[in-house]
Amino acid sequence: MDNAPRDRDAEGRARNARPRDGLGRPLPYGTPGVERQPEGVVRTPGQTLTEAQRLLDAGMPFHAHEVFEDAWKSGPEAERELWRGLAQLAVGLTHAARGNTAGGARLLLRGADRIAGYRDPYDIDVTGLTAWARELAARVQGPVDAGAEAPRLTSAL
After folding, report:
1. Predicted structure pTM score
2. What residues does 14 pair with on adjacent strands?
3. Which one-letter DSSP state was computed for residue 123?
4. How many Å apart are CA 69 and CA 136, to the nearest integer?
């Protein structure tokens, strides 16, 4: 049995303290990494979309997924599947960028299916996002450039 102490966050929850790269992959201890997204942040839908778009545009879909995850965990029950689907799109792009094409395609399609029933809440371009996800899932054959492939979440962003 491993009795090594576990990494903990400020609240005492187990959390791996290894630095991470822009796609969320762990790096060796002591290596400079990308700052993590804070967890449990309650944002308005507009703030969520703006922050997630900024991270997607920067080629950091793993971090965008964490922003969507906060929205799905803190938002109204009726919107949880929307935010969960958007998180799956971001994770699908993360996997595609890491070269996990099968997993990326699966998550892109799952996320597209999850959001497809919504009618553009908060000006989210549901039709455009589902088309983007299905198109990327169909053609991904190796690692993609996450920033170049980043979708537009709304027409306003």
Report:
1. 0.86
2. 8
3. G
4. 22
